[in-house]
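Reading a protein record of the kind used here takes only a little practice. To see the layout at work, look at the sequence and tokens printed below.
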Amino acid sequence: MPKQTKKQNKRIIAQGAEAILIRQGTILKKDRIKKSYRHKNLDTFLRASRTRHESRIMDKASKLILIPKILKTTEHEIDMDFIEGEKLSNYLDKMPESKAIKVCRTIGQQVSKLHQANIIHGDLTTSNMIWINKTKGSAKLKLKRIKPQDKLHTNSKLYFIDFGLSFHSPRVEDKAVDLHLIKQAIESKHFKKSNIYMKNIITGYKESNPQSSQILKQLEKVESRGRYKGKH
């Protein structure tokens, strides 16, 4: 009799308002949740259109930076590689400062690549970044899967995840707001070293973005609006 193979167990690893993340072996399934308060046809349409939109942006982003590889897209579900690693939010402060500075510069460089392609992530936080430790066997396996044309990314070991709020925009304002989001996240989660981290994110961003001065000027305006609101 042929050997029976065990089915890989499904395990919910996260659930938000819009989607549920299910791990099945080396696959991560992102399933958009039904909304009972919406008309059935509208709900089906919205879930499908948002899933297609996210999948297309991920496909475009995958040519620029490291993100999970899409394996399959259906009406309301995206199957992708599960990236073995640490959420950067849990790992950044544990690194030696010199290493953390390099990682922050990589963050800036990768955000810059997205912005030059007019991709706005929309939810830039260190919780939406995965850091791979090369010493782990699973991490080595993931690095081996990278296509030859993507070898320039392998030194970073930094994956961006969750493009559920991403969109296309050439607007300087949208790019500045994207940077404002990561600054807020750094100040909230990594407040002890937020100045050092953000300084190096901006350094990395400026290194490869010819439009950076214009975007950073707009970032100052975005921040000033926030300070003004805080006084009232």
